[in-house]
Amino acid sequence: MDYGTIGSIFTVAVFVFFIGIVLWAYSKRSKPGFDEAANLVFDDEPKHKASSTKRESSDNE
């Protein structure tokens, strides 16, 4: 096996991997997760704020 054949096999493998990532990114199953991640920027309050507030109030006493 020469370098040309190895390079061709590597190119085809990387291309197949790339197509797999594109299909995953645009699949309907991934959309809800991506939508949630995109809206995290606009979320004002962290989800675990209640537990941290309890700790802060007990530390201040």
Q: What are the defining features of this structure?
A:
single chain; about 60 residues; mainly alpha; 3 helices; about 70% helix; elongated
Account of the protein in words:
- The chain is mostly helical and 61 residues long.
- The chain has one domain.
- Helices cover 72% and strands 0% of the residues.
- It contains three helices and no strands.
- It is elongated.
- The protein starts with a helix and ends with a helix.
Number of strands: 0
Main pleated-sheet profile = none
Question: What share of the residues does DSSP label as strand, in percent?
Answer: under 5%
Give the count of helical stretches: 3
Q: Secondary-structure element sequence?
A: HHH
Q: Domains counted in the coordinates: how many?
A: 1
Q: Write down the overall mean pLDDT.
A: 84
Secondary structure: helix percent = over 70%
What would you call the shape?
A: elongated
**pLDDT below 50 for ≥5 consecutive residues: which ranges?**
none
Task: Quickly give the structural class.
Answer: mainly alpha
Q: Whole-Å distance between the termini? A: 74 Å
Rg result: 23 Å
